[in-house]
TrEMBL record:
Record keywords: Membrane, Transmembrane, Transmembrane helix
Lineage of source species: Bacteria, Pseudomonadati, Acidobacteriota, Terriglobia, Terriglobales
Protein name: Glycosyltransferase RgtA/B/C/D-like domain-containing protein
Entry superkingdom: Bacteria
Membrane-spanning residues: 21-38, 130-149, 161-178, 184-205, 217-248, 254-273, 302-323, 330-350, 356-375, 382-406
């Protein structure tokens, strides 16, 4: 190239039929979520997330000694509050910026603010219901896209689409996406953290120049997961350690160094979520947000629900195949199965959370892998029919129960 300047090569993005079909499924999922949101009424909990989220962005110290009027959020992660408040804060800034473009005598907000306090300005904002719920729907759709990408790379198109189809038509996933909560963000962060750790371990077997981007991504994933739920980050850290030690053969001496640096970076990210306010941040360590125990109540409620019947049938078939067919027992299927088995019985004792929900993306990944293996056997036609019946039935059930979710 002239002048000796090297041209930069960007990765080529190909959008083929698989990508378009995955996009259609995700659009259907988003459509389900917004259909539910359109029929919801704003609840006191919605207002709490909106108010305290805006306080984090606009005025982080409304009460002496407390981070927000919601308290110091010692166990209830700050991630969901910031996500809920961000669109409303942006709308407020847009309103102020637009007002400053008017002549002084025509300005609505002559004082340069929206009627004083963050809470009292709430009536100035529009479409609050949709702005409040939109980020959580998008994070859930993002997780679905990540689930499809992981399952497709591991198991091919059939495994990827089966996993994504179950995800998009799972009532529990839809329910988690249409209300402000930290569970959907912890689910998103934990799934990304585990598979990013696997990516780092694989990169460690290659040249070192490929390590840094993935280690940086691991750090961000750990930090955001901790900002959602401390227990999710703790489980993710242990899972990352075990998986990296298993996969990074010949480079295991670097695993603890990488995780230590990632943890330090994650602590910095978590500190930033508390606006670098040390008193509030200290409650992460003293508030009991990392306490947990074990119970099968969550798993029982999921697997005994009629709305999840096709998923339960698929899980039963997959369990039989995994135990009885050797070709199904390999790392790609075993890793998500173990993660699901670990997460389903976890319960937190100090905050309101549903850790069994975090297990669902791993469960769907496992189901996609086992059914993809079954579709490569001589019984392909039988399993293809079963796969289609499971997806169609689950979709019909999900669409049927949407009005109940909207209540």
């Amino acid at each position: 190239m002239a002048g000796g300047v090297r041209s930069m090569k960007f990765p080529e993005i190909k959008i083929g039929r698989p990508q378009r079909l995955a996009a259609v499924l995700l659009l259907i999922f988003i459509g389900q979520c917004f259909w539910v949101v359109s029929r919801q009424q704003l609840s006191p909990e919605d207002y709490r997330f909106a108010r305290c989220g805006r306080e984090m962005w606009e005025r982080p110290s409304p009460l002496a000694g407390y981070f927000t009027t919601c308290g110091n959020l010692n166990g209830d992660g700050t991630f969901a509050y910031r996500v809920a408040g961000f669109p409303l804060t942006v709308q407020r800034l847009v309103l102020l910026a637009g007002d400053k473009l008017r002549r002084p005598e025509n300005r609505v907000y002559a004082s340069g603010s929206l009627n004083g306090s963050t809470w009292e300005a709430r009536h100035e904002l529009t479409n609050v219901k949709y702005l409040l719920h939109l980020p959580f729907v998008l994070f859930a759709a993002w997780l679905g896209a990540g689930l499809w990408w992981v399952a497709r790379r591991l198991f091919g198109n059939e495994g990827g689409f089966f996993a994504l189809g179950l995800y998009c038509f799972c009532p529990a996933i839809v329910r988690s996406a249409v209300t402000p909560n930290n569970d959907v963000l912890a689910m998103w962060g934990l799934y990304g953290l585990v598979y990013t750790a696997m990516g780092v371990a694989h990169a460690m077997l290659g040249p070192r120049r490929k390590w840094r981007p993935r280690i940086a991504l691991l750090t961000v994933a750990l930090g955001l997961t901790a900002a959602a739920h401390l227990v999710a980050a703790m489980i993710g850290f242990v899972a990352a350690l075990v998986l990296m030690l298993y996969l990074a053969e010949g480079r295991r001496s670097y695993v603890m160094q990488i995780l230590i640096f990632s943890t330090l970076g994650a602590m910095g990210i978590l500190f930033a979520f508390y606006a670098f306010r040390l008193p509030a941040f200290s409650y992460v360590f003293t508030g009991g947000g990392g306490r947990f125990w074990f119970s099968l109540d969550g798993a029982k409620s999921f697997f005994t629900s009629v709305a999840n019947g096709p998923i339960v049938v698929a899980a039963g078939v997959a369990a039989v195949l995994y135990l009885g067919v050797r070709r199904c027992r390999y790392f790609g299927n075993t890793a998500p199965l173990v993660m699901a088995a670990v997460l389903f019985p976890v319960v937190v004792t100090q905050v309101v959370a549903q850790p069994w929900l975090w297990a669902l993306p791993f469960l769907f990944t496992f189901l996609g892998g086992v059914f993809a293996d079954a579709l490569e056997t001589k019984y392909r036609k039988m399993f293809l029919a079963l796969t289609g019946m499971v997806l169609v039935t689950q979709a019909l059930i999900c669409l049927t129960v949407l009005p109940g979710i909207a209540r």
